[in-house]
Amino acid sequence: MKGPLFYSKILLFGEYGIIKDSKGLSIPYNFYKGALKSANNLSDSAKQSNESLNRFANYLENLQSEDLVLFDIKTLKNDIANGMYFDSSIPQGYGVGSSGALVAAIYDKYAQDKITVLENLTREKLLKLKTIFGKMESFFHGKSSGLDPLNSYLSLPILINSKDNIESTILPTQNKEGKGAVFLLDSGMVGETAPMVQIFMEQMKNEGFRNIIKEKFVKHTDACVEHFLNGDIKGLFGHVKQLSHVVLDNFKPMIPKQFHQLWQKGIESNDYYLKLCGSGGGGYILGFTEDIEKAKQALKGHKLEVVYNF
User: Using one digit for the tens of pLDDT, what is the confidence trace for 102-147?
Assistant: First the structure.
């Protein structure tokens, strides 16, 4: 048995902001993927995944009482007993949606009366899917928006206008010859979502921090989304720089210490600008540059993966 492939995602804009109704833009990232598989003799990692799926199945069984979604629990548990696991190349704790892909795969295979990718996806249907996925993914790291699994399930870019207004969207065509790029920078360490979100929620109790989020963070995030989708590169980079600054000044705990200086260096030199990829604390850091060769020179010794070309 081998199920269909589900891809990783990158939240280009909106990390933390979407909790406070900023815009957001999430795109599928096909470099990493996962699928449900079965085997008689499980490797250590497959065994771990199988045990985790078993706990997840019990969680989903309890979730059914909320009348949100029904699963074929009997078949799911039977498949798990017969050695089912999630075979994935998506790195965990890197902000690219490893649990999201798993949630999408389980919903796709075991949900009854499921909303499919082929039907007309109205806003109501998208929101219902997002709610279901949010509840399912909460098993893995506390509160979940449901966006990662939604992105993985649909394999489409998702534009978040506000909490209850989301739509699939089309990205400007990439310019493969272009010098500008969005890239992933490997921090070399794993990040954990729950503690980072906890720090953010604590800081939100402080009025000064709330004002910064509203007046600066959300403002620049919204502008970045608009400029990116309209292909306005000049406008985009002006706001990405501001956003990078706001994050460095106000989200220090989410940025691994050894990257504080590199972050600052990018803002000062204009060779690249860094921002959080997901909740931060490790994993990938997202970079934007108008000249990828310059950025590679400036970030020598670090691993860069280009995800989009301007």
Answer: 999 999 999 999 999 888 888 899 999 999 999 999 998 777 888 9
User: Is the overall model pTM greater than 0.70, yes or no?
Assistant: yes
Question: Residue by residue, what is the 3-state secondary structure of the chain?
Answer: CECCCEEEEEEEECCCHHHHCCCEEEEEEEEEEEEEEECCCCCHHHHHHHHHHHHHHHHHHHHHHHCCCCECHHHHHHHHHCCEEEEECCCCCCCCCHHHHHHHHHHHHHECCCCCCCCCCCHHHHHHHHHHHHHHHHHHHCCCCCHHHHHHHHCCCEEEEECCEEEECCCCCCCCCCCCEEEEEECCCCCCHHHHHHHHHHHCCCHHHHHHHHHHHHHHHHHHHHHHHHCCHHHHHHHHHHHHHHHHHHCHHHCCHHHHHHHHHHHHHCCCEEEECCCCCCCEEEEEECCHHHHHHHCCCCCEEEEEEC
